Q: What sequence folds into this?
């Protein structure tokens, strides 16, 4: 029978559930705005485990084409290698219905053979603004209790935040692939016009990203570094081919002409307002740390960090690749030369990171098109 004490207890319980839901949404929206799709998925699984007090949580994604579900992230007793083909099992049922389902005694259901390791299970579709992106699964409470309606509400709250965050991250990564693809085509066109730069850009990109990661740059900066590296020599589009392809050493005027390519690259990209940091890295990628012999005479921290990394990556590839006018150096000799130039041509901190990165690096076969 209802009593004032019972009503109060019920209200307190309700309030505590609502508070839990609000603080959860706050935590998730804070976290999701800065993470990659892998990190978001792992956070969702972690959050589901801690918010619902379950032993296992898994984030399932729909494969492109929507024919299979696969595990993107999981915590606890979950076989992440197993896929779920279309219309097979409880996860697809939830996705089709676009509604959560809970099974407190899984052994008594038709799904007992598919998931024999669990006693109880709750599944919620992950829905973005425009599409179903997957499902969030939780199983077996630590306390051994069954799932209540408040658990279902929490799971739905996590799923709906997850849906928007995942959809945004997917959209971002699709746009990013499109952008990187377009840049790669542009760079290939540039390399095709010069007989000795084949593969140079891709290698410099690999080295720069490797150094940037050792230096602990954020994912966002590493992404900008990648684009900067892909585009670092784009200004050579405007350099006469006779100079780019010359087999003898360059005369004074030709050196002046080729030293213009960082500035020309920056000019080509100037309309891309979002590329401000990238443009500066390209413009200053031939600066020297000590300010001597660089193109613009900047020194030390005046040179953007991405430009300082590009300088080392670019020089290392130039030394370890064949050129029409000289043979390539060995990896060891090139590393020694980079080390020798720390503090003069190169930022010593970048060289330190380079030395860590290069330890695990084995040069691949260089392609040289005569
Ligand atoms: Fe360059």
A:
């Amino acid at each position: 029978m209802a009593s004032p004490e019972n009503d109060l207890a019920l209200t307190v319980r309700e309030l505590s559930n609502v508070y839990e839901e609000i603080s959860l949404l706050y935590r998730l929206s804070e976290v999701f705005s800065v993470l990659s799709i892998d990190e978001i998925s792992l956070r969702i699984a972690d959050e589901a485990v801690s918010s619902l007090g379950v032993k296992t949580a898994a984030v399932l994604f729909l494969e492109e084409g929507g024919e299979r579900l696969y595990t993107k992230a999981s915590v606890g007793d979950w076989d992440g290698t197993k896929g779920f083909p279309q219309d097979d099992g409880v996860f697809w049922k939830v996705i089709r219905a676009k509604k959560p389902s809970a099974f407190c005694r899984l052994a008594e259901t038709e799904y007992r053979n598919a998931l024999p390791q669990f006693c109880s299970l709750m599944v919620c579709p992950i829905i973005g603004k425009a599409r179903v992106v997957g499902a969030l699964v939780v199983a077996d409470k630590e306390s051994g209790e069954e799932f209540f309606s408040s658990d279902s509400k929490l799971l739905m709250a996590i799923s709906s935040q997850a849906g928007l965050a995942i959809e945004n991250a997917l959209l971002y990564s699709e746009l990013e692939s499109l952008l990187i693809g377009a840049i790669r085509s542009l760079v290939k066109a540039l390399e095709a016009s010069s007989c000795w730069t084949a593969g140079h850009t891709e290698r410099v990109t690999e080295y720069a990203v490797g150094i940037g990661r050792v230096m602990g740059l954020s994912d966002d900066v590493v992404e900008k570094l990648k684009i900067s590296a892909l585009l670092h020599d784009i200004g050579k589009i405007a350099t006469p081919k006779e100079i780019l392809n010359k087999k003898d050493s360059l005369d004074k005027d030709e050196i002046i002409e080729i030293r213009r390519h960082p500035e020309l690259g920056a000019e080509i990209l100037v309309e891309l307002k979002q590329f401000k940091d990238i443009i500066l890295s390209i413009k200053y990628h031939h600066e020297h740390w000590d300010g001597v012999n660089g193109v613009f005479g900047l020194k030390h921290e005046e040179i953007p960090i991405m430009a300082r990394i590009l300088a080392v990556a670019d020089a290392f590839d130039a030394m370890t690749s064949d050129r029409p006018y000289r043979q390539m150096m060995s990896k060891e000799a090139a590393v020694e030369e980079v080390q020798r130039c720390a503090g003069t041509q190169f930022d010593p901190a970048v060289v330190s990171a380079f030395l860590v990165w290069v330890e695990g690096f084995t040069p691949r076969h260089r392609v040289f098109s005569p």
Notes: The first strand starts at residue 54 and ends at 62. Confidence is low (pLDDT under 50) at residues 365-370.
